[in-house]
Structures are given as C-alpha cells and as structure tokens.
Model the fold of this input.
Amino acid sequence: MGQNNCCGNREIDSNIEISLNHSKGLQESASQINYTPSFPVISSENIKKITKIQASWRGYQVRKQFATILKNNGKKIRFSNAEYKETSKMISTSKEREQRPPYTYRSGAVYIGQWVGNCRDGVGTQTWSDKAKYEGLWGNNRANGHGKFWHADGDIFEGNWKDEKANGKGMYFHVNGAKYIGDWKNDLQDGYGSEIWADNSRYEGFYKQGKKHGFGKYVWNDGSFYIGQWIENRISGRGIYEWLDGRKYIGEWLNNNMHGVGVYTWKDGRRYEGEYRFDKKHGKGTYTWGDGKKYSGGWKNGKQHGEGMYMYPNGEVKYACWKDGKKLRSMDSTLSIM
Done:
C-alpha cells in the first residue's frame, strides 16, 4: 500500500525485460510472452497496522479502518466504567422513568435526560469535556438502542448500540468524507456493509471482526475492480480482477496474489491459462498470442521452464526444453506437455 506496494514486480524472458507499474501505465507488446501483471501486495508492516483499511494497492493514501476508529475513539472519551459505577451508587427508589436536572460526573461529563432509579434509562444526551457527545436511547445505565455519537475529532457514528458498543445496523462518517454503512458487532464491522471514500473508491461485501471476509467487490476510482472472496482483509480464494484497460484475471488468489489456477486475458487477444504461484506463471500453462500462436508447457517464476511446445496457426509444432526463460535445446515430438 502507498509506497510499500509491490507494483514494480518484473518478469524477464530470454529477450525482453518488462517493467510493470500500475501508476505509470502498461508497456506491452504482442511479442512479449512472459508478461505477468503485478498485483500489489500489502507489506508485513501494513499487516501489523491492520487498523488501516485497504483503499488501494496502487499508491492511494492508506485510510483508517472505520471499526478501529470507533473503537479507539471510544477508548479515549466515551462511556467509562467510572461513570457507570458513579451513578449506580446513587440512592434512588424511583421505579418510574422520569426526567431529572442535568447530572455532572466527576469526570466532567454531563448527562441530561431520563432516569429509572439510579440508571440512565430512556432518552438522554451525554456530553464530555472534550465536546464528544452521545444522543439517543439508554437502558440499564448504558447506551442501548438507537443513538448518535459525535467524536471529538469530528467523526460521527449513528446506529444501534448494545451495552455502549455499536451492534446491529450503523453508519460511520469520517471527517475526511469517507463513510461505512452496514452491520456492526462489538464495535467492529461484522456482517454486510459498504465503505465509500472521498475519491469514490468503494467496497461492498461481507466483514468479520472488522475485516473484509467472505464475498465482496472493491472498485477503484479509475474503474478497475475486484469481485470475489476475501479472507481477513486480503484477496484470497476465487475472484475476478479487471483493469480499466481491458485486462482481466479470473481464477484463484492467495494473500492478494494470483495463486493457483487462473485465466489472464489482454484486450489485444493475448491469453494465459494455467497455474500461478505468488503472482507469477508457475507450473503448467498455455500462453496464446493475438495471432493464434501458442506456447504450452512448463513455467517457473514467470518464465518458460522445462518441456514445452510452440504451436503455430499453420499447424506446425515445435518442441523444446527451457530453463529460466532460455531455450536449451530442441526436442522430438514424443514428449508429453500437459
């Protein structure tokens, strides 16, 4: 992400070195056989910073993860146990919901609203000394039901609460224009929801414990998109990635890499169908040029490797043995390629 992505991965054949960089555009040729696009990978540093959200793997600014913003802001300013205990110790025999004068906590927070006995219960507003504010329903001395919370930094959450945590449906609006609308569980995105950023990049799909998990679609602001499976905030499983220039990959993924079996196509008619390993052609596969010529055989780290054959539109077939993208020798027609 940002400057930590792997957009500059390269594959080299025996004649051509191809530098790939999404931000600088593509440099393609119909004769380039070992062209495999880089799918930028989230670095280990960013994995440690999973309090961030994946807005893009192509140089866009990393954005905060809504769930963690909510959780961390909550740790700073809202719903302390000290306040809960303070009012729980109040002596009140009232069993009816009633409106009372404002109550000021030792922390400086002020509650204005309804009570039942020594518990905040019903409709009420609590304002903290740093200007953070909750307005909504209360039950059993805690925020319970529908409510709206204004964070001191300008972020806003509105939705359902259970025991002072976001649970159920809710909307989080970040001061920078980003927003999340969807399901929550214990202050984390959990269930189905959508994220939209100020640059119009967006994700819609499933979450688990604050991370993209399950089926979802991510659309970048240039129109490129991925639709498919996610595991713990990473593209893993089966899915489709389509670039704005018409390139498309359909197949298996692992940790944001093309990994497994897939089909990669270019707008000019080129096509690779076969195995990938960590974003590179690896194993058995067939590469087809736009003019119908094909190479079918072994690959290793994005290069022709092992036994393979060229098949020409006129029906001619040539067999050869390769090592790291270099042809070692021609072979007879007795070898078994696929």
